[in-house]
Write a structure and sequence with these properties.
By secondary structure, the chain is of the alpha+beta class. It has a 7-stranded mixed β-sheet, sandwiched between helices. The longest helix is centred in the C-terminal third of the chain and has 19 residues, at 770-788.
């Protein structure tokens, strides 16, 4: 927020307070002064009148002038092309210190010069605020400019603008009057505000009607001014508004901005003659277009708040008025609007239509309900004084402004405990008094009556914060907090993410982080499309306008990019949270391309295949506590993205986690990339599934016995089924089951496959003999025949 210290000084006495002191006290009180800007700088400046102006005898571009500065006439050499006799100008006398030069008596091409005629650029005025003519030559003042006076004061440039960073809870300080009270409390100075209350009961009967058909507008105040004069604003008002970066239009429009800065309440003025009738209704759930003052056409959504007159849209509530009812030179009567609108809705609409105004920023932060009434009265006062307002009608109100001040209590000991020091009750009461909290001490409690402007004061801790602010946070004693020591940790979701990251890195994979925002039209064929994607209201580009709801599309872009730069051998993974309309989902993507390293020391490599990726998925699940027997892979066929014979769906118990496998050869060929393996898994079921408890057994001291067997089974029978049957049939002697070969083709009946399996038998207390092994082996073969129709292969 920008603050004009000169304007602030009209309401609170700043005499004897330096800019540095003011900025420091505000900062230590929680209103951080981030920077300051001098509108212009220069010492020993006066207004002068050019008496004569002749060409320099030895120069084709210099002029020799005489300038009357009141107490004397100076001879000055000037190089500006626009200098002429009779002009009122800014003169820097000998000894003047300007931003880039110190003025002293000098000879210029043999002629003595005593001073300099200045342009505003030479005084350090921001070039953005100047016209091309002002940049090109000296500043020519009005003919009535008083000779000998300070030109910066005359132009309103003797001002310093403070940039104050307001915290979200201090929306009250968007009003200059509220800030004046804050400075008053900090420096114990008196506040003097305009006597706007004298205009409260002025008004004749009115035909104006105002209403609201939406809960998003709890208060709407209207007032008709039947006759006024639109003209140029007085110099002091233009200077005040220009100092804060406002463009001045005319006296009526400028008054609305001026009062908004004073009270914090945005106002809007309608040309009464341009409305169909003196009836204003606030609505939502409307469609159509609003043409705003900047001539933009805003397409309404149903949730937007709109100002209407007999069904016609005349303004986008809280953001900008309509172009059809704007104030211009033809305006002779106006209707004043001061209202309260839903902060969240104003924020939403403002961002959606990309229209951020001074009014919308104030509505978004919340306003004092009483500010609207103050703003109407103050604007009425200024319209009478500056726009010759007549035929002033009574104020019309929809809703009820709150006048009840909150009562908040705090115990003195609570203040001492929280701030870590002892503060006398008298000192605390004085702080609350200067803050206008009307403190009383009742039943061992300090009872405060909070002004309606202070929306941030709700509970006792808020009052304690006010004490801390005024004591000064830098003056609070530093003490270590007394609290029980607790051991922090990760929640289940964080643990799962960290475990997966560590394991994947251990497998030799590299983590990637891809864009959350994607282009809906750039999905890879066969990958799950962005069904019902969430679109951004104001995307920065067409390439990033939707929130993704799968990982494979994003990861696939990374694969294509790397292979295009001849990077063929890599392993990638990404763990990310995906956003859906009604929920979020933790997901994992895995990629293997080319050769993978299986022995880092000897640098042995082999080509990535279905089983290498399958092994990583199994290991990820097992290492996170899910038994291998709960994991299942079911073959996928006729999927446009995956290879018909090297892909599978991944299940944990009966819950599908996702898909994995080699991408379809036709897709690889179409995209011009080498074949790769990919997987995408939904991790949410893992967070809801019980993890097996880890059991510890002593190391078995007796040896195991291995038996190999070759089986012929239907191709639909999975290796995991075979493993489960073998384990169950010979419990508890089967230590492990490993499939080391799969064969289809010659000597194997069509539709079937041969599996070569190694079974490890081991007892815990003795070495198994041949009879024991043969007995359990026979049970295994019988179970396989019964459950899968398996036969021993000769």
């Amino acid at each position: 927020m920008k603050i004009s210290t000169k304007w602030l000084g009209r309401y609170v006495d700043l005499q004897g307070i330096s800019i540095d002191e003011l900025a420091d006290r505000l900062t230590f009180a929680g209103l951080e002064a981030e920077g300051r800007t001098y509108l212009a700088q220069g010492t020993n400046l006066v207004i002068g009148e050019v008496l004569t102006c002749v060409a320099h005898p030895d120069s084709d571009h210099l002029s020799q002038t005489t300038v009357n500065i009141g107490k004397e006439v100076l001879s000055i050499i000037c190089g500006a092309p626009n200098v002429k006799a009779g002009q009122k100008v800014i003169v820097a006398q000998n000894g003047s210190v300007l931003p880039k030069i110190t003025i002293k008596k000098t000879l210029i091409k043999g002629v003595e010069s005593n001073g300099m005629i200045c342009s505003l650029l030479e005084l350090g005025v921001d070039p953005k605020t100047l016209t091309e003519d002002q940049k090109a030559g000296i500043e020519v003042l009005d003919k009535d400019a008083p000779i000998g006076q300070d030109p910066l004061a005359y132009l309103g440039l003797d001002d310093v603008i403070l940039e104050v960073k307001l915290t979200p809870n201090r929306s009250d300080c968007n009003a200059l009057w509220s800030l004046a009270y804050e400075v008053s409390a900090l420096f114990d100075r008196k506040v003097t505000l305009p006597d706007y209350l004298a205009y409260e009961h002025i008004g004749q009967p009115t035909q104006l009607k105002v209403s609201s058909e939406t809960t998003k507008c709890p208060l709407f105040i209207g007032k008709t001014i039947g006759e006024l004069t639109v003209k140029e604003s007085p110099l002091w008002m233009k200077q005040a508004l220009n100092a804060l970066g406002f463009k001045t239009i005319n006296n009526v429009v400028d008054i609305s901005n001026y009062v908004m800065i004073e009270t914090g309440q945005p106002l809007h003025f309608y040309d009464a003659a341009k409305l169909a009738a003196p009836e204003i209704t606030v609505k939502d759930n409307r469609l159509g277009i609003v043409k705003t003052l900047d001539e933009s056409e805003i397409h309404l959504h149903k949730e937007d708040i709109v100002i209407t007159c007999q069904g016609k849209h005349i303004g986008l509530a809280g953001i900008m008025g309509g172009d059809d009812s704007k104030i211009d030179e033809s305006t002779h009567g106006i209707i004043i609007e001061a209202a309260q609108f839903s902060p969240s809705q104003i924020r939403h609409t403002s961002r959606r239509v990309n229209l951020i105004t001074e009014a919308s920023l104030r509505f978004q932060k919340g306003l004092d309900l009483n500010a609207a009434h103050k703003a109407v009265l103050r604007s009425t006062q200024l319209l009478i004084e500056l726009a010759d307002a007549k035929e002033i009608e009574t104020t019309v109100v929809y809703g009820t402004p709150t006048t009840d001040e909150k009562i908040v209590k705090v115990h003195p000991q609570h203040i001492n405990d929280l701030l870590g020091d002892v503060y006398p009750i008298e000192k605390v009461m004085e702080i609350f008094r200067v803050l206008r909290f009307s403190p009383k001490f009742e039943d061992q409690m300090i009872v405060c009556q909070i002004p309606t402007t202070r929306l941030d004061i709700e509970v006792a801790q808020d009052l304690i914060e006010e004490v801390g602010r005024f004591v000064g946070y830098h003056n609070l004693k530093g003490t270590l907090p007394l609290m029980p020591m607790t051991l922090g940790g990760y929640d289940q979701r964080q643990q799962l993410r960290n475990n997966i990251r560590s394991l994947c890195v251990g497998f030799g994979m590299n983590e990637i982080i891809t864009y959350t925002l994607v282009n809906k039209d750039k999905t890879v064929e066969g990958v799950s499309p962005l069904a019902n994607p969430q679109a951004l209201i104001s995307p920065l580009s067409d390439e990033r306008q939707y929130v993704r709801n799968n990982l494979l599309n994003s990861v696939f872009e990374t694969v294509i990019y790397n292979q295009s730069y001849k990077m063929k051998d890599f392993q990638l993974f990404e763990v990310s949270t995906l956003s859906h309309i009604d929920h979020t989902q933790e997901r994992l993507a895995l990629v293997q391309s080319g050769n993978i390293t299986i022995n880092r020391w000897q640098k042995e490599t082999r080509e990535a295949d279905f089983y290498s990726l399958k092994g990583i998925i199994e290991q990820l699940l097992v290492e996170n506590g899910y038994a291998i027997g709960r994991i299942r892979f079911d073959a996928i066929q006729d999927h446009p993205f995956f290879h018909p014979y090297q892909s599978a769906k991944v299940f944990l118990d009966k819950t599908e986690l996702g898909m994995m496998g080699r991408i379809h050869p036709l897709l690889s060929q179409k995209l011009g990339i080498d074949s790769i393996l990919m997987a995408e898994l939904n991790l949410e079921p893992l967070l809801k599934t019980k993890v097996a408890k880890i059991k510890y057994n002593s190391i078995i001291k007796v040896p195991s016995v291995l038996r190999d067997v070759a089986l012929v089974v239907e191709q639909s029978v999975s290796a995991s089924q075979i493993e489960k049957i073998i384990t169950e049939a010979a419990k508890p002697l089967v230590k492990s089951v490993e499939v080391f070969d799969v064969y289809t083709g010659e000597h194997v009946e069509k539709g079937k496959k041969s599996l070569a399996i190694t079974i490890a038998f081991q007892a815990t207390d003795h070495t198994l003999n041949d009879d024991e092994i043969q007995t359990h082996f026979a049970k295994i073969i019988e179970a396989l025949k019964t459950q899968t129709g398996a036969i021993l292969r000769a």
